[in-house]
């Protein structure tokens, strides 16, 4: 199968002048441009005016480059972030780390320090990891193994997860309250994955649909990090059908 052509290696999220004011060097981000979990990290990078040195990982990366990547993440998974002598995988853990390490000393609305607010954000991140994205992946990933989507039971599980998200969004405008947080970044990447896969039943969840469009409009990096990847992602999927 053909791999997707990588984007330029430096994700410049702010002007050279403002980058000079930053006290941190660009961090290495091992990623793939059509990986939904990677999208959430890129979105946060844009929101925080960070710079990532992008290192594309796909099946063509072998030898010393692959060994270096596996040293940082024995699970062979993207995204993996390397910040100096510290490496961490799992996109939602990366989101939390970036907020704690690079969002500044002030209380940041994307990840408030209030215990109840932070607990709710962590709940939604874990909901995404263990249910929404997991069920979307379980339903759509058989395409690149067998050429067809998952079973009716898999679809119903995904619908159930979307129903839970619909309920959460009935309580507040955003996933974890009345302001955008890193929980929304993770969840919007998962819903974008469903959009890429043309999951028409998304329209059956009006609050999810409204929230999704709001996030697409409000997130500074959505067009470049996510929407611009839709064509490549769909082409990747189509080759397996």
From TrEMBL:
PANTHER family given in the database record: GLUTATHIONE S TRANSFERASE D10, ISOFORM A-RELATED (PTHR43969:SF9)
KW Transferase (keyword) present: yes
GO MF terms, alphabetically ordered: glutathione transferase activity
Protein name: glutathione transferase
EC number: 2.5.1.18
Lineage, opening ranks: Eukaryota, Metazoa, Ecdysozoa, Arthropoda, Hexapoda
InterPro entries in alphabetical order: Glutathione-S-Trfase_C-like (IPR010987), Glutathione-S-Trfase_C_sf (IPR036282), Glutathione_S-Trfase (IPR040079), Glutathione_S-Trfase_N (IPR004045), GST_C (IPR004046), Thioredoxin-like_sf (IPR036249)
Domain GST N-terminal, residue spans: 25-106
